[in-house]
């Protein structure tokens, strides 16, 4: 579900002129599911008047009853100013339903979207709908995020997006082509939604996702914890001459505050031959933020190899001929727990003569950003030790224009 600040106290839950927080969530009736019923998911609300410290469920729950379908869940709610109403975006089977309400309690169905669009390899869930400006213009578009499982571009879970217009009732899709557009081409960025009530003076649209895949989420080789979240990413919508609208996702400015300042590993452009690759030791840290700029003029392919002393590695392949980025985790560490885990993850990419790659390396994850978020590829890994060495390889001479690293501190230790 989701949560909002009821600024105008439309629910009447607020006290002492202070707006309440309202959570909108799915009830899942396990007894109903086991009994073979289809209406076991309904929507309820709860409210808080002490900044989320304590919550009270609304006595009139559920506020939205199930019409008799198995998948009826994951309400994402926003305030739609033109009609002075709340809009709920809800996953219903393999499409999205939009509902409106003046008070978060009584809901009216407005429309459906998606039966004829996007990927349909699995169930649709965790939707999000929001307005966003096209970068460099005053034009506003609406973006609809929809997670799907299975049916992702590299198997299992993934999040697709649609760009278009919304009038408070109907979403009209303007995506180019028949193939889905994906937020992240890695195997491990799913169910991402954006924060509500970011101040208008800030105006950013920030997303966070669940960093796993339902192909193996329940059997990953971890103790104490299971699964983590992606780093928060600021979303931007850019107009691309060939691809239409592209949703970028890049690290937020606040991420720069985690860790120490950048350390230059190489500041001047230098050429490396095929038999003498560039090698950079990242040092010792809880995690690393690494960035490299490569000159690939006259070069068909480059490999950024992340490795450790245990001979575990992840290869990030930049293929200029195929215009593709690939992440290979066949030797990444522990992977025997699932036949779906060892994989070569493929993503379409604009590999030009100059390529900028940023990689956040954590204990069990590798988050790759190409050209400041035009492409995102997120994958989890289970090495014995963190990767702390980078090797730049190529079959021909290649230029490393610059290489730098930030050592990151744990945010919880």
Written description of the protein model:
With 413 residues, the protein is mostly beta strands. The protein has one helix at 30-34, and strands at 2-5, 21-28, 41-48, 56-57, 72-80, 85-92, 95-101, 108-113, 123-133, 140-149, 158-166, 171-173, 181-182, 190-194, 205-211, 228-229, 233-240, 244-251, 263-266, 270-272, 278-281, 287-295, 301-307, 313-319, 324-328, 344-348, 354-362, 365-370, 375-380, 389-393, 398-408. The strands form six sheets. Strands 19, 20, 22, 27, 28, 29 and 31 form a seven-stranded antiparallel sheet that branches. A six-stranded antiparallel sheet has the order 21-30-23-24-25-26, with no helix packed on it. Strands 9, 10, 11, 12 and 13 form a five-stranded antiparallel sheet that branches. The longest helix has 5 residues, at 30-34. It is globular. The model has no long low-confidence stretch (mean pLDDT 96).
